[in-house]
Amino acid sequence: MASPSCIIVTGAAQGIGRAVALRLATPGVRLAVWDVERAGAEDTARLCAGQGATARAWGVDVGDADAVEAAVAEFERELGKPDALVNNAGIFPRAAALDMALAEWERVLRVNLTGTFVCARAAAARMRDAGRGVIVNMASGRALAGAARGAHYAASKGGIIALTKSLALDWARYGIRVNCVIPGITDTAQPRGEMGDNELYAMGARIPLGRIAQPQDIAAAVAFLLGDDSAYMTGQSIAVNGGAIMIP
Asked: Is residue 1 over pLDDT 60?
């Protein structure tokens, strides 16, 4: 089976999404870089093009099913049917459960969980016609451990793990594999919005492997799940967290 060559990466303006796009950007690859922040997506696309890929940026709100379908259709017309999708887009606005507005709960689930579903469905419709494809969804360690001031986020990411298994069962008959990565704390804008270097380093010191993740660590797991070495894997969730999941 050939490695994917026509790939969509969502939430790729920065952080893990950008690292994934750059990891996949090799000559011959056609890459769609999606993010609600169009300027950041364009920066990522330029970097990917500099590595030899054909890359184009789209400004897409993954929680908008019509916008997702339109972007996939445009990508198909311009670059071909997608044979891989990385569902990385997500948001994590902090809010205590008792104070959380219902609209905030619904917004997080719409972007994180519903967005993962509508992107996967739109891509899989094209993959089904080809009889092959691979999807990697992005969950979070918060799905397994919970999140103070983040019930909406943890619930959405736990849903992604269950969704991954369900889609894998539904779509195996079409030759479509669906797997999931569960990152631990990673050196991106999200934790740095709340913690400084000292706090991050102290947190890393408590992890068995002695550091927090870099975006490239997560991108490596995504690349594995997209490639031929994982050809007999579907419905699986791989935790990439330096052993933090084992801490009681």
From this structure: no
